[in-house]
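May I ask for an example protein's residues together with how it folds?

___
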Amino acid sequence: MPFSKLGLSEPILKAVAELGYQKPTDIQKQAIPVVLSGKDLIAAAQTGTGKTASFVLPLLEILNTERKLRGKRIRALILVPTRELVVQVESSIHHYSKYLSLSSMAMYGGVDAALQKQRLIWGVDILVATPGRLLDMAHQRALHFDELEMLVLDEADRMLDMGFIDDINKIIERLPA
C-alpha cells in the first residue's frame, strides 16, 4: 500500500517521497487513518519503525487549513521526555511540512527562555516541548492553550518512568476539554 492510499494530501506526499519513503510501515498504516478520522490513539512500536511519522503526518494533514494564529497560542502540542527528542521530532515536522504553511517550534530547558518566548509571540501551529519548560512558559503567561486542537504524548511510558507524572497532570489540567 502506498502513502497515497492513506488520505494524505499532495504536499505531504511530495515531502515524504523526497525523504525516500516508499511505503508506510505497519504502525503508519494502522495509525494514520485512525488519527485522520479524529479518534484518540494509543500505539506502541519498536524504535525505527516510523512512529514519529505515524502521528506527525496526520497531524499535519488535519492542521493544514487556512487559519489565522493568535499570539501566544498553539494548535498542536507534542510532549516528549528529553531535549534530544524535542529536536528530533521538530526536525521531522520541519521536513514533512516542507510544502505546507505551518509553523513549528522546539521548546526545552537549558537554553535561553527569552528566545523561546519571543518565538511564541506570533503563535505556533505545532509546539514540541518537554514538560518542565512548557509548564515554566505557561506559568509566565508566555503561552495559552485555549486554541489547542491536538495533544500527543510521545514516549509517554518513558516520561512516566522519568517522573513526569505530576507535570503531565498539571499540563492536562490546563488544556481545553
The chain has a mean pLDDT of 95. The helical segments are 10-18, 26-36, 51-63, 83-96, 113-120, 131-139, 156-161, 165-174.
